[in-house]
Description:
Blueprint: H1 7-32, E1 46-52, H2 56-67, E2 75-82, H3 88-98, E3 102-107, H4 116-127, E4 132-137, E5 140-142, H5 147-153, E6 161-163, E7 166-168, H6 174-195, E8 207-210, H7 211-216, H8 232-240, E9 245-247, E10 255-257, H9 263-275, H10 282-305, H11 312-337, H12 346-366
Parallel strand pairs: 1-2, 1-4, 2-3, 6-9, 7-10
Antiparallel strand pairs: 4-8, 5-10, 6-8
Amino acid sequence: xxxxxxxxxxxxxxxxxVQLYYLAYYFLPFARRAPEPTEGPTPExxxxxxxxxxxxxNLRRLLPLILQQDYPAGFEIILVDDRSEDDxxxxxxxxxxxxxHVRMVTVKNTPDGLSPKKYALTLGIKxxxxxxxxxxDADCIPATNQWLNYMQRxxxxxxxxxxxxxxxxxxxxFLNKLIRFETFLTGAQYLSFAWRGFPYMGxxxxxxxxxxxxxxxxxxxSHIRSLGGDDDLLVQDAVAQGARVAVVAEPxxxxxxxxxxxxxxxxxxxxxxxxxxxxxxxxxxxxxGIFMGANLVFYGTAIGLLFSPPNWVYLAIVWLIRTGCxxxxxxxxxxxxxxxxPLAWLPILDAVYFxxxxxxxxxxxxxxxxxxx
Length: 373
């Protein structure tokens, strides 16, 4: 009895094979790697930079937690007040009276055509006293008082850049689960790829690099007029200049952010993030694009096979195998990153996310105008 594989079923099998390769080569080994050592090289002082635009309430929550970091080597906090119209200036001025290692840089205006955040960060970096710098956003908080300690250990690998993980706080509702899943999947990609020797991005909510790296890339010069990319495009430029990148993914090194509350706000946020991807080098675009494309092909082909009754049994078998492997690896990654989503929700979130991702891609192709706050 002959066995005939239709072109659609063959495409489905190929897409699943590609996904299983990524799971087996990148995600699962990264999830199973040994914990970071508790002892590291002799720590050095660090400059912690936060750029804020009308973020007073967030700063009231963040800055005390940074001040409470257990880091005997010493650190300074540089708050870049980027054109704020609230009482950020008064609040930080009060802190500087009690904490001499808190400093403020005030940005009154941004030159025409330049990215406001990149311009503000550049001014902050120029005033940093220490060669090692750690960056986070005003709407984040460190997960523990060991955040500084963990992140600086990455420099001792040795490395010139350290990429960390930044999760979103769990809240009720499907949107929150989807945001957390997207963040988790993005983190799984850039952390595991970097661990395998293919660093391509980081997130500004939890990123560290040296002053020498910033100078080697001429700062943000290659993309200073692009709104996004103060993190991932800088990593792209730094790697091109030979920078060594370390991954620090211990839960104690994470930062935690408050997610947006509406679908529209998340849509705008993701459009801004994805727009930077066009500037990635070709090998990185291919590595990320093949994984994302394989998932999209899987869902598109599976929907088509629903209208082919002779293939239903094969479709069901392939779907179960893929779902089982994917859920098992994602659950293991969730434990490794201490960012767990309900196991039963993973197949649903995976499907919804990739259709949402496809819609975002079409939106960016048709309408490329982006805005910054």
